[in-house]
Amino acid sequence: MRIISGCYKGKKIDGFDINGTRPTKDRVKESLIAMIQTKIRNSVVLDLFSGSGSLGIEALSNGADICYFIDNSKDIVNILKKNLMGINNSVLITKDYKDALTEFKEKNIKFDIIFLDPPYHLNILNNSIKMIEDYKLLNKNGIIVCEFEEEVPYSIYNVIKEKKYGKTNIIILKND
Questions:
Q1: Beta-carbon neighbour count of residue 69 at 10 Å?
Q2: What is the percent of the chain where pLDDT is above 90?
Q3: CB under 8 Å to 167, separation ≥6 — which residues?
Q4: Which of 60, 74, 109, 142 is the most exposed place for a label (fewest CB within 10 A)?
Q5: Cα gap 12→14, rounded to integer Å
Q6: Distance of CA 152 to the CA centre of its chain
Q7: Sign of torsion, CA 94 112 119 35?
Q8: Which residues have CB under 8 Å from 116's CB, separation 6+?
Q9: What Rg do the C-alpha atoms of the chain give, in angstroms?
Q10: Would you say 137 and 104 are in contact if contact means Cβ atoms under 8 Å apart?
């Protein structure tokens, strides 16, 4: 797996062989980055269920100011540490998503782009969105990029884009 665009284009990242991860396929990632390209430069990004970190690294590669990578699996975090070597402005936090979101609320850290690609079988996409809404972690005009299979996201935010790639669905929500 490689970074597909920006200043880190071509950088190899590990991730396909980690139990519990489901890396975003390159064609989906390429389309997704194209959909949000105008929002990335100078943004504050959260890659909440990071896995390999490919979405957050793509954002940094395309001009995001900073990206917070969150995962609670020690095995995944070890791979993520390796993938983030040489990547500027990355913050890696090893915590459960609920604890991480609570910490961002307490520290008043808000985001322009939030990537949500939780493990499908846990059905925690909607709980993640609700916490983001309740804690007001998304800046005005910020977006949440949701990747899911069956759990359709519910939100007070507006749906600005929807796309289906086989079993994978992408919905982009915007805070107007």
A1: 30
A2: 69
A3: 149
A4: 74
A5: 7
A6: 17
A7: negative
A8: 48, 49, 125, 128, 129, 144, 145, 146, 147, 153
A9: 14
A10: yes
Strands 158-165 and 168-174, how do they pair? antiparallel
* pLDDT tens, position by position, 104-114: 999 999 999 99
CA distance 122 to 153: 14
What φ, ψ does residue 173 adopt, rounded to 5°? -105, 145
CA distance 31 to 90: 23
Instruction: State the amino acid at position 171 in one-letter form.
Output: I
For the chain, list the domains and their CATH numbers. 26-174 (3.40.50.150)
- pLDDT at site 70: 97
pLDDT over 90 at 123, yes or no = no
Element (H, E) at 105: helix 97-106
What is the side-by-side strand order in the sheet with 158-165? 90-94, 66-71, 44-47, 111-116, 138-148, 168-174, 158-165
Is residue 141 within 8 A of residue 111, CB to CB? The reply is no
